[in-house]
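On clarity, I found the account of how folds are encoded harder to follow than it need be. What matters is that the chain and its backbone geometry are given together, residue for residue. The format is easy to grasp once an entry is in front of the reader. For illustration, here is how one protein appears when written out as sequence plus structure tokens.
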Amino acid sequence: ALHCASEPHRNACVSLSMAAPEKKPSLLRWREIPGGVWALGLVSLFMDASSEMIHALLPLYLVSVLGASTLEVGVIEGIAEATAAVTKVFSGAFSDWIGRRKPLVLAGYGLSALSKPLFPLATSVTAIVAARFIDRIGKGVRGAPRDALIADLTPAEAADGEPASSPGSRAAPCSPRPMRCTGPTASRAAA
């Protein structure tokens, strides 16, 4: 039943029927997240941490130990990031085309993991370029299929209407690299 106010300054109608109570947020909502999403989140978190540990020191190593110029460092980084971006576009389309995401996610994480030991073993700029190229191909191959897999695994009730994203990005707003923050932490750090 509806009750409408008759006063001229009130235009609203109030429902007198009992509406379902609003669901209170629970501290135990993390239990609603599927195990596959937790696994992908942890793998993503640790892979990002290992990449940040290496990539934070890589320009210093290239310049001071291997004698690369800053121009060479910029070219290496540009090629690496362009490789990841282009590969991500094609891996997402390929993942949609074949209808399978897990093999591409595994291949991407595998390539990135295999490239990590190459960095400390590198004795030339060429070896670093090869390791960085392999690592970024791995990142590109896994990126879009991983996000789609998380979206496929996450039930709508657990997502609260928000688009699915990497759990590592929600669980750890700051990466291991000092002073690099995202999300709510960034606004506090900037203040």
